[in-house]
Amino acid sequence: MRLNKETIDQIQQAIDVVEVIGDFVTLKRKGHYYSGCCPFHSEKTPSFTVTPAKGIYKCFGCGKGGDAIQFIMEHEGATYVEAMAYMAKKYNIEIKEEELTQEQNFEQSEKDSMLVVTNYASQYYTDQLWNSEDGKSIGLSYFKERGFRDETIKKFELGYSHDQWDAFTKSAIEKGYKTEFLTKTGLTIERDNANDSGDRKFFDRFRGRVMFPIHNVAGRVTAFGARILKTDKTQAKYLNSIESVIYHKSKILYGLFQAKQAIRKEEECLLVEGYTDVVSLHQSGVENVVASSGTSLTEDQIKLIKRYTPNITILYDGDSAGIKAALRGVDLILQQDMNVSIVVFPEGEDPDSYVQKIGPTAFKEYIKSTKRDFISFKTSISLKEVGNDPIKRAEVIKDIVESISKVPDAIKRSVFFRECSKLLEIDEQILISEYNKKALQKGQQEAKKQISEREAFAALPELPEIELPDDIVRLSLEEESLKMHEREMMRYLLNFASSTMEQEMPLSDYLIHELQDVEFKNAAYDYIIKHIIQVRLRGEQVLHTYFIQQDQPEYVRDAAIDLLSTKFHISENWEKFQIIVPKEIEVLNSVVPKTVLRLKRVVLKCMIRDNMKEIDRIQKEGSVDDLMHLLQVAMQLKVISKDIDKTLGIVVG
Question: What is the average pLDDT across 555-560?
Answer without folding.
Answer: 88
